[in-house]
Design a protein that fits this description.
The chain has four helices and 20 strands. By secondary structure, the protein is mainly β. The protein has two domains: 275 residues, no CATH class; 83 residues, Immunoglobulin-like (Sandwich), CATH 2.60.40.1930. The N and C termini lie far apart (65 Å). 33% of the residues are buried.
Length: 386
């Protein structure tokens, strides 16, 4: 009798474990006609990535974002760059009218390439094509799955397309540049459990992604052909300051954690870690109804957003769709007197946290201008006190 009860208990535990572990089919691949909503917290706090293994719990309710980005997936034949990707199945619109093109099979969701923007943030117009296509998602996805993938990209552009801050310090005057981008990925589904984000809770699989990348920059001068000048540029130019992005050139390792659910086409969360792989520096997460200001990802005008608004002690300023350069953010009181000012180097998106505890409660204006003094946006900020 005791033996029978013991076997029954073991069977119940095993079955319960099997039920708890989710398996995600290719239904989580985006398809033509789908619309997804995601938000980005570029200053995440209180985010613990946790450990590996089964039956984990992640509380990401501290995530904040001023708006949710809407992406609509369309038939690739309707795209501006379909002639460059005739075998693609669908596209997604990106910022500044750029488009990404995908292959979709029963087991893989693959990125063929982009049209209209380079993938590393140099701010140049390009048609970067991945060879072979870069696998973004796998199916079915199950606990302890492991996958590997590699891809290469090469694209050229005029020397006039880069900022003078990059080209002027160089000992040569190139006619054109070429980017060579090689990457390899190792994906391991190392945990499963429940994730809670603003507005919802989901049963998820966690995929740890380790990306090794090497980005090289070549220059072409006259009839001498292409020459690798990566090391010269890294020594002569502070790319992070000029472009506002890390790892623009050279070798680097990026660790990120992707949380997927069979309840959504969006990733429930994608957590990008710092260079040491220890602290989260960016979290993209599923946008729920708690974020009411929904924007189309390619319709966000160049500017700045403040949140929370009203604010009490700290306020975050989210810069969006800005060309690489220096910008000045100012706060004015209701009489038009400047009470705070700071300069930032921004490339596309950036988030800054500002302490406003020294300002009295009331209504203020915040304004963003570029390095030529042109005002790009002026909006209202309300400061309250408990």
């Amino acid at each position: 009798m005791k033996q029978s009860l013991l076997l029954t208990f073991i069977w119940i535990c095993c079955c319960g474990s099997l039920v708890a572990q989710i398996s995600i089919s290719n239904d989580y691949f985006p398809a033509v006609g789908d619309t997804t909503y995601t938000a980005i917290d570029n200053l995440p706090s209180g985010i613990d990535i946790g450990s590996t293994g089964p039956n984990q719990s992640w509380n990401f309710t501290t995530l904040q974002a001023p708006f949710s980005r809407r992406t609509i997936y369309r038939n690739s034949s309707s795209g501006n760059f379909f002639s460059e990707y005739p075998s693609s199945d669908l596209l997604a619109e990106l910022v500044e009218d750029a488009e990404s093109y995908y292959n979709v099979t029963t087991t893989r969701f693959e990125l063929q390439g982009f049209g209209g923007s380079d993938p590393i943030g140099l701010g140049v117009e390009a048609l970067p094509k991945y060879s072979p296509p870069l696998v973004e998602r796998w199916a079915p996805l199950e606990y302890e799955d492991e996958h590997s993938s590699e891809a290469n990209v090469s694209y050229a552009f005029s020397a006039d397309d880069l900022p003078n801050e990059i080209t002027d310090p160089l000992p040569i005057t190139p006619d054109s540049f070429r980017v060579r981008y090689n990457l390899s990925r190792e994906d391991v589904v190392d945990a499963w459990g429940t994730m809670t984000i603003p507005g919802g809770a989901y049963e998820v699989l966690r995929e740890k992604r380790t990306t090794q990348q090497d980005i090289r920059l070549d220059a072409k001068v006259g009839f001498f052909g292409w020459q690798d000048i990566t090391d010269i540029v890294l020594e002569a130019v502070d790319l992070e300051t000029i472009l506002g992005i890390e790892n623009a050139l050279g070798e680097s390792t990026i660790i990120s954690y992707h949380f997927y659910s069979d309840e959504a086409k969006e990733p429930i969360a994608i957590v990008t870690m710092d260079q040491e792989g220890v602290n989260p520096v960016r979290v993209e997460f599923k946008g729920n109804d708690i974020i009411s200001n929904v924007q189309n990802v390619n319709a966000l005008k160049p500017g700045v957003y403040a949140f929370p608004n009203p604010a009490i002690v700290n306020v975050r300023f989210e810069f969006s769709n800005l060309k690489p350069g220096n910008y000045t953010l100012r706060i004015y009181n209701i009489l038009g007197v400047e009470v705070w000012k700071e300069k930032y180097n921004v490339n596309n998106f950036r988030t800054e946290k500002v302490d406003i505890s020294s300002l009295r409660k009331g209504t203020y204006l915040y304004s963003l201008s570029n390095d030529k003094g042109k005002t790009l946006a002026t909006k209202r900020l309300i400061i309250i006190r408990p």
